[in-house]
Amino acid sequence: MKIDKERLEMLKEIMALDFSSIELNLYLDTHPMDQKALAIHNEYAVRLKKMKEEYEKKYAFLTHKNVSECPWEWLECPWPWEIDYEMGGR
Questions:
Q1: Would you list the DSSP string of 14-26?
Q2: pTM of the shown model
Q3: Mean pLDDT, the chain, integer
Q4: How far from chain centre, in Å, is Cα 81?
Q5: What's the pLDDT tens digit per position in 34-47?
Q6: Nearest to 22 by CA among 46, 41, 38
Q7: Secondary structure class of 84 (helix, strand, coil)
Q8: CA–CA separation, 61 vs 89, rounded Å?
Q9: What are the contacts of 49-56 at 24+ separation with CB within 8 A?
Q10: Which residues contact 66 (CB under 8 A, 6 or more apart)?
């Protein structure tokens, strides 16, 4: 199964935003009054939520934590480790 370029780019952007959100969260744990970092964190959190919703609506669930129709839809897409993120295929 090949992954189209748009889908692959969305996955990469989601991963980058997720990583950045986690790092900002850790930073804010020790610097809770840093308004600039908090503003960036909040911006990323909003963008990440929107991108995940858009991706799941257009392609497939990103986690198992979604309500599914029958058959179980989580199995329908490639697992994250099955995707060749450089070439866009499996």
A1: HHHHHHHHHHHHH
A2: 0.77
A3: 84
A4: 14
A5: 999 999 999 999 99
A6: 41
A7: strand
A8: 18
A9: 51/10, 51/13, 51/14, 51/17, 52/14, 54/10, 55/7, 55/10, 55/11, 55/14
A10: 56, 73, 74
